[in-house]
Automatic annotation (TrEMBL):
Keywords, sorted A to Z: Methyltransferase, Transferase
Stated name of the protein: Uncharacterized protein
Comp. bias regions, Low complexity: 23-39
SUPFAM superfamilies cross-referenced by the UniProt entry: S-adenosyl-L-methionine-dependent methyltransferases
Entries under InterPro entries matching the protein: Ppm1/Ppm2/Tcmp, SAM-dependent_MTases_sf
GO biological process: methylation
Gene3D superfamilies for this protein: Vaccinia Virus protein VP39
UniProt keyword annotation of Isomerase present: no
Taxonomy, superkingdom: Eukaryota
Gene Ontology MF term list: methyltransferase activity
Disordered: annotated span: 17-45
C-alpha cells in the first residue's frame, strides 16, 4: 500500500506546545502579561553568525509569499516556524524588494517539482533524498512522499541544533537530520549514507557560498559515492562573484559569493555520467525585461547597468542533472 505522510503531523505536534491564554472570563492584565512572558520564554533565542542569518532571511521570504494573495510556494510551515523564534525581524535585512520573494520561492517551487517528479518516478523502489544545507527548509513536509522514503537533511551543527529545537523529529518515516560541514574534506558523514539506491541530491542556496576548489571537490565526492540518481541545485555566475560587494541581501547579512558557475558544462565535465535534464535561467523565469526591471535589484542601483553586461542573463540558473 502506498502510505504517505500526514504532512501536518509534525507541526500539529509542535503547535500543541504553544502557550495559550487561560480559558476564563476574567480579563486580567496580570494574566495576559504572564501568558505573554511565558510565550516569549518558550521562543529559542537566536544567536547566529552573519552567514546563519541567511536562514532567517529565506524563512522571512517564504512567510511573505505565504501571506500574499497569489503565493508561489505556499509554505504554510514558514510562518509557524517564525512565530517560535525570538529574533528581531524588523531589521533592514528583511526589508527586501518583493521580487526577491518571487525569485527565492520560485526557485524552491521548481526544486520541489523536480523532487516530486523523482519520487513519483521511483514509486516502487527504495530511494534516498539527500538535502545539503537544509537550513530551516520544510521540503520534507511539503512533498507528497511514501513513509519509507529515506530522507537525510544535512547542515552545520549550529544550524541543526536550532532546527532540532524548532522542529520535532517526525514520529513516522525514515528521516535523519545530520550535522556536518559538507564543504570540508572529511567524508565521515558521507560514508554513513547508503549509496546503492536511486538518490536525489538537493543543494539549494549553497554552491555560490563555497570556495571554488571546495565546491568542485564536494561534487566529485558526492558523485563518487552514489551509484545513480538525480542532482538538482542553483547557481550564480561570475558576475555575482565580481560584484558580490554590491549584492543587497549579501551585504545585509554579511555574506559574500565566492564561486561563480557560468555554464552547466562546468559541472557536467566533473563526471561522464552526468546528463543535463533541465535548466532554467532565473532571468527568463522572472521575465526581467529591459534593464532588468522585473528582476531583483541584486546589485542595488547598479542593477540596470550591470544587466547590460554579457553573462547577466545566465547569472542565475536552476539545474537538474541525472547520473
Amino acid at each position: 500500500m502506498d502510505q504517505r505522510y500526514d504532512q501536518r503531523a509534525v507541526f500539529d505536534t509542535f503547535s500543541s506546545t504553544r502557550v495559550k491564554a487561560p480559558s476564563t472570563s476574567r480579563s486580567s492584565s496580570t494574566a495576559t502579561k504572564t501568558s505573554n512572558n511565558s510565550s516569549q520564554a518558550l521562543k529559542p533565542k537566536i544567536e547566529l553568525g552573519p552567514e546563519e542569518e541567511r536562514l532567517l532571511l529565506g524563512l522571512h521570504l517564504r512567510v511573505r509569499d505565504a501571506a500574499s494573495e497569489n503565493p508561489i510556494l505556499e509554505d504554510t510551515y514558514a510562518s509557524e516556524l517564525l512565530e517560535k523564534i525570538d529574533y528581531d525581524i524588523s531589521r533592514s535585512a528583511f526589508k527586501l524588494d518583493p521580487t526577491y520573494v518571487q525569485y527565492a520561492c520560485g526557485r524552491s517551487k521548481q526544486i520541489d517539482q523536480w523532487a516530486q517528479d523523482f519520487l513519483d518516478q521511483h514509486t516502487f523502489e527504495d530511494v534516498l533524498v539527500l538535502q545539503l544545507a537544509c537550513g530551516l527548509d520544510s521540503r520534507f513536509m511539503r512533498l507528497n512522499r511514501r513513509k519509507d522514503v529515506k530522507w537525510i537533511d544535512v547542515d552545520r551543527p549550529n544550524v541543526t541544533n536550532l532546527r532540532r529545537r524548532l522542529i520535532p523529529h517526525p514520529e513516522d518515516g525514515d528521516y535523519t537530520l545530520m550535522s556536518a560541514s559538507v564543504a570540508e574534506d572529511d567524508d565521515s558523514w558521507l560514508r554513513r549514507i547508503p549509496s546503492d539506491r536511486p538518490t536525489l541530491i538537493i543543494m539549494e542556496g549553497l554552491t555560490y557560498y563555497l570556495e571554488p576548489d571546495k565546491g568542485v571537490r564536494l561534487f566529485q565526492r558526492l558523485l563518487g559515492h552514489f551509484s545513480h540518481g538525480n542532482l538538482v541545485f542553483d547557481t550564480l555566475g561570475s558576475l555575482g562573484v565580481v560584484f558580490t560587494h554590491l549584492v543587497d541581501p549579501g551585504r545585509k547579512v554579511d555574506a559574500r559569493f565566492r564561486w561563480g558557475i557560468n555554464d552547466a558544462s562546468e559541472i557536467k565535465k566533473l563526471d561522464p555520467r552526468l546528463v543535463l535534464r533541465d535548466r532554467i535561467f532565473s532571468h527568463d523565469y522572472m521575465d526581467a525585461g529591459p534593464f532588468a526591471k522585473g528582476y531583483p535589484p541584486m546589485f542595488g542601483g547598479w542593477t540596470p547597468l550591470i544587466s547590460l553586461l554579457p553573462g547577466f542573463k545566465k547569472n542565475g540558473q536552476f539545474l537538474h542533472f541525472e547520473f
